[in-house]
């Protein structure tokens, strides 16, 4: 299980653990939607288009590793490693997202607290960098929604 906890209330950084072991820190970008993280010495950069509906993950060489499309919608996808992964929002009002395999839920992620911003994710079949990417994209979407609601 992947868990993400806000490192500070004043900055949007999240400490991410896998099965209780620290693996990385999601560091949001201040001037565009997305963020950066590092796993096992490999640096990744996540950037969104202007509308925040497409997110791309690049490795340290600038190669695109993964792409999320239709982010923030009821149904959305991630393409990586020659595969397409499907996700859906479990309910209109909830924050739970489900990973689907052949239309059947096989994993999920959800906010553990709106106040602390904590996230738990069980995403079987995805590599650790892809799990962090999906969780990071979801954090970015939730933060954008909170900012829009408070404006």
Structure in words:
- This protein has 151 residues and is α+β, with helices and mostly antiparallel strands.
- The chain has one domain (2-150): Tubby Protein, Chain A.
- It is 15% helix and 48% strand.
- The chain contains 1 helix and 12 strands, in the order ββββββββββββα.
- The chain has one helix at residues 128-150, and strands at residues 2-6, 14-18, 21-28, 34-39, 42-48, 54-59, 64-69, 75-80, 83-89, 97-101, 104-111, 119-122.
- β3 and β4 form a beta hairpin.
- It starts with a strand and ends with a helix.
- 28% of the residues are buried.
Features:
single chain, 151 residues, alpha+beta, Tubby Protein, Chain A, twelve-stranded antiparallel beta barrel, 1 helix, 15% helix, 48% strand, globular
Short description:
This protein has one helix at residues 128-150; strands at residues 2-6, 14-18, 21-28, 34-39, 42-48, 54-59, 64-69, 75-80, 83-89, 97-101, 104-111, 119-122. The chain has 151 residues and is α+β, with helices and mostly antiparallel strands. The protein has a 12-stranded antiparallel β-barrel with strand order 1-2-3-4-5-6-7-8-9-10-11-12.
Cα gyration radius (Å): 14 Å
Helix content: 10-25%
Oligomer: single chain
Q: How do the helices and strands follow one another from N- to C-terminus?
A: EEEEEEEEEEEEH
Give the rounded overall mean pLDDT. Answer: 89
Task: Compile the SSE list and pairings.
Blueprint (H helix, E strand, L loop, with lengths): L1 E5 L7 E5 L2 E8 L5 E6 L2 E7 L5 E6 L4 E6 L5 E6 L2 E7 L7 E5 L2 E8 L7 E4 L5 H23 L1
Antiparallel strand pairs: 1-2, 1-12, 2-3, 3-4, 4-5, 5-6, 6-7, 7-8, 8-9, 9-10, 10-11, 11-12
């Amino acid at each position: 299980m992947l868990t993400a906890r806000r490192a500070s209330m004043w900055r949007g950084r999240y400490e991410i653990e896998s099965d209780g072991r620290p693996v990385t820190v999601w560091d949001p970008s201040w001037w565009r939607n997305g963020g950066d993280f590092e796993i096992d010495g490999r640096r990744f950069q996540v950037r969104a288009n202007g509308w925040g509906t497409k997110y791309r993950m690049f490795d340290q060489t600038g190669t695109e590793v993964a792409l999320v499309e239709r982010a923030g919608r009821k149904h959305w996808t991630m393409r990586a490693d020659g595969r397409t992964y499907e996700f859906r929002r479990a309910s209109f009002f909830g924050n739970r997202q489900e990973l689907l395999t052949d239309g059947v839920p096989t994993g999920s992620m959800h906010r553990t607290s709106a106040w602390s911003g904590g996230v738990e994710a069980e995403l079987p079949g995805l590599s650790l960098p892809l799990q962090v990417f999906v969780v990071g994209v979801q954090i970015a979407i939730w933060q954008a929604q909170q900012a829009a609601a408070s404006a």
